[in-house]
Amino acid sequence: MSPKEREQVEENSPAPAKVVHASISKQGEEELERPASSLFWSAVAAGIAIMASVSVSGALHRYLPDAPWRDAVVAFGYPVGFLIVVLGRMQLFTEQTVVAILPFARETSWRNAGRVARLWAIVLGGNLAGTAAVTALAAQGHVQSAPMLDGMVAVSAKLLARDSFDTMMQAIPAGFIMASVAWIRSAHNETGFWVVLVLTLAISLGGFAHVIAGAAEAFLLMWTGQADAGWVITGFLLPALAGNIIGSTGLFAVLAHAQVSQEI
Questions:
Q1: Global pTM value
Q2: pLDDT tens figures, 16-57
Q3: Which of 97, 138, 191, 225 is least surrounded by CB atoms within 10 angstroms?
Q4: Domain spanning 17-258: which superfamily?
Q5: What's the sign of the alpha-carbon dihedral 29, 124, 150, 171?
Q6: Rounded CA separation 239/112 (Å)
């Protein structure tokens, strides 16, 4: 091949796994160094924005007829909040589990463990604060019509059909899928919209449990009297959190690092 043809081959070749790994690790280092206030307010914004998933899903549930295919169409409302959060570069807990863990995997130390724990705690706390506030406003603030609120509650009520073990197990695939969003977007950033849309739609269609999007549904059920605080914490949040961490950090991040550990 001519030099020009070889250059074209290089330009059209996908980035090697170790390059993607290095890119995400660099992003993780930057996130670990950000001020706590920046992380927190970005996480609060993400918690508020993720409510769009519940709102659009509730609207679809309200307007569609009661038919066997309704739930499949309602699922298309689920990616909306994730598109706002991920493409808007807000702090979402499940993405940070893989982004922040790769620098720790590259250099395992107590210092890096503490940095990861700090990031996780701030982002998770901000996400939950945002979802708790926006769902209280939705439930009590009359910011949408009563039929719209009924649709949102109906969509959220599916959480009540799961016990805590089911929630944890169904959160593992969701954690894995959300971790893969960060990985794939680093390899193909120009297709970010479709990556987020397709993968978060898969979470909804699969009936999997995402701790932050699910927190919006769980808090909405609590504020409207469909569930109590005990169920929100022990019946949903803790099991979903455990499952998401297992799926994103325990499976995806560890495997993603293992595939290039001998090359870096």
A1: 0.86
A2: 556 665 666 677 677 778 899 999 999 999 999 999 999 999
A3: 225
A4: Glycerol uptake facilitator protein. (1.20.1080.10)
A5: positive
A6: 26
Distance CA 97, CA 245 (A): 7
The span from the CA of 258 to the CA of 82, in Å, is 28
Percent above pLDDT 90 for the chain? 59
Whole-angstrom Cα distance, residue 261 to residue 93? 25
- What Cα–Cα distance (Å) separates residue 61 from each residue in 45, 149, 150, 177? 25, 11, 9, 25
User: How far apart, in Å, are the Cα atoms of 146 and each of 140, 159, 196, 220, 227?
Assistant: 11, 21, 31, 14, 19
87: Cα separation from own chain's centroid:
12
Backbone phi, then psi, for 200, in 5-degree steps? -75, -30
Rounded to the nearest 10 degrees, what angle do helices 36-49 and 51-63 cross at? 0
Structure-block tokens of residue 201: 């739609």
Give SS3 for 13.
coil
Q: Is the pLDDT of residue 103 over 90?
A: no
